[in-house]
Amino acid sequence: MNTVNKKETDRGRICEIRKNSFTIRFEGKDLPAKLKGSFYEKNTNEFPVVGDYVDFEYNPIGDSVILSIEERKSYIQRPDQAKTATMQGMVANVDYVFIITSLNEDYSYNRIARYASVVLSGGSIPVVVLTKSDLCSNPGRFVSEVETISEKVRVHAISAIYGIGLDELDEYMTPGTTICFMGSSGAGKSTLLNAICGEEVMKTGEVRESDDHGKHTTTHRQLIELENGVSVIDTPGMREIGMAQVEEGLDDTFSDIVELESRCRFSDCKHDTEPGCAIKAAIESGELTVERLMLYKNLGAENQRNYAKKKEIAVWVRQRERAERRGLKF
To answer: Which of 99, 234, 97, 228 minimizes the C-alpha distance to 174?
Structure first.
């Protein structure tokens, strides 16, 4: 990251991005900004994301200029669906990520595990918020189920409309904390944010009766500062999130399996016919389920496939660029 003379610049936080237009939150004001040209010249994917703290040159009559990104304490990213060889930065400097899932057809144990792995890999704490508990006859069963995903995942069942369980979220509402809301459309992100604020700060969308899925009410990531000093980053609804470069997050989410693997007699144990396999012993004793093991294997395989694919394409892109600089056909 660039080093700049702090005396000649100001420090702000990226609160909104629309294509190539940035908005910086600075001393209670939102300033339009653009990137310094060197961001594009470096041929890097290191661009600011919502939540980043940046150094910038203030322009009172036009776009301010973003000079550099300050060191991040957390950074959540996913495979870029439009640019196969790159990762897409989502948010930065987030303390907690609320993985919001409604207790209807939107609920998916596997998807929550996927989100948790990505969040842990990015250095934030995953908090699963199971919404619409008033529509579920036994929300406690789902809380217990989600708790088995990882000891590092926190879980709460709430009803934002009726105020059920909202007090459980008070522990996260401390001044200076940044929370990111992630989840499917119609899961209740905007409704929850409005309930926390005590007023309508985000529009809510209807949920289609045919499939319990909601309309997109958030079209881009944006940072909202609440009166209690908490910052909330709202994100567009996502049904799925891709896996790549999340080895640490997977190990954290499935730390029980990683620990069992370390007990296998052979370091390259395939957990098939090898003697002294701790994984097979755990399944036989009921300590580990086959479903959880398969989820771990499937997510790990997807992570490796995506990483290998992106690495291969990145090498091809670099070779093509070198050839073009030399005036050669590729």
So the answer is: 228
* Cβ–Cβ < 8 Å for 128, 112: yes
Average pLDDT over residues 47-62: 95
User: CATH number for the 76-234 domain, one of 3.20.20.70, 3.40.50.300, 3.10.560.10, 3.40.50.450?
Assistant: 3.40.50.300
Distance of alpha carbon 88 from alpha carbon 80, whole angstroms = 5
Distances (CA, A) of 43 to 37, 101, 282: 11, 38, 48
Enumerate residues 6+ apart whose C-beta is below 8 A from 134: 159, 161, 162, 164
pLDDT tens-digit readout, 248-300: 778 888 888 888 999 999 888 888 888 899 999 999 999 999 998 888 888 88
Residue reference for tokens 């950074």: 75
What percent of the chain is modeled with pLDDT above 70? 76
Instruction: Give me the residue spans of the domains in the chain.
Output: 6-70, 76-234, 247-321
**DSSP classification of residue 137:** S
**C-alpha 161, offset from chain centre:** 25
CA distances from 13 to 44, 57, 236 (A): 21, 13, 20
What's residue 133's pLDDT?
Answer: 93
User: Degrees (nearest 5) of the Cα angle 45, 183, 149?
Assistant: 95
Distance, C-alpha 59 to centroid of its chain: 32
Instruction: Report yes or no: 99 and 183 within 8 Å, Cβ to Cβ.
Output: yes
- Give the Cα separation of 1 and 10 in Å (integer): 16
Contact of 49 with 91, CB cutoff 8 Å: yes
